[in-house]
Design brief:
The chain is mainly alpha-helical. Among the domains are: 33-114, no CATH class; 136-167, no CATH class. It is built from four helices and two strands. The N and C termini lie far apart (58 Å).
């Protein structure tokens, strides 16, 4: 991946904005997901993102630790506050690393769960449509019998009075 900046804060901002865009793209009316494979890939990419977070957090923590050890940091609340804040930062980043590792594990399981799932009706499925098993239905508007589960003319496309009466029940 080619990036135009190596500034960590700017890259983290780009990542956050990408997730915001993803949140919009996954809204039902946004059409950012078309097939189950899109969800599979999205979850897989989120899993990769979560997998990479601990490294970034460790490296940010190491930077702050080096700065602190070299005496290059201060708190405008005083030296005791600096020590407490560094300790809180270290604890919080450790918690964040554990949370990211748990997120990665959960997303990997979600990714695995989605792997065999496909969408029917797009010539991608290996199975044929199964009838409902209730035998034959009779289309009142044309008076013929059809196997249940077929594209019977009295489905949503038909608006004759006989079919409208059937759909009320």
């Amino acid at each position: 991946m080619t990036t135009e900046t190596t500034n960590a804060a700017a890259l983290a901002d780009q990542a956050a904005e990408s997730i915001r865009s993803l949140n919009y793209a996954t809204l039902p009316w946004a059409n950012g997901l078309t097939f189950p494979g899109d969800a599979y890939s999205t979850v897989g990419n989120l899993s990769t993102l979560a997998m990479r977070l601990p490294q970034a957090l460790h490296q940010v923590r190491a930077f702050i630790d080096r700065q602190h050890e070299n005496g290059e940091l201060y708190s405008d609340q005083g030296p005791d506050d600096l020590t407490a804040r560094i300790a809180n930062f270290r604890d919080a980043t450790s918690d964040a690393v554990r949370a990211a590792e748990a997120l990665y594990a959960a997303l990997e399981q979600a990714h695995i769960a989605l792997s065999p799932i496909g969408a029917r009706g797009h010539d991608l499925d290996d199975e044929e449509e199964e009838p409902c098993g209730e035998g034959m239905c009779q289309c009142s508007c044309i008076g013929t019998l059809h196997p249940c589960g077929c594209d019977c003319p009295h489905d949503d496309d038909c608006s004759c009075d006989a079919c409208d009466a059937i759909e009320q029940y």
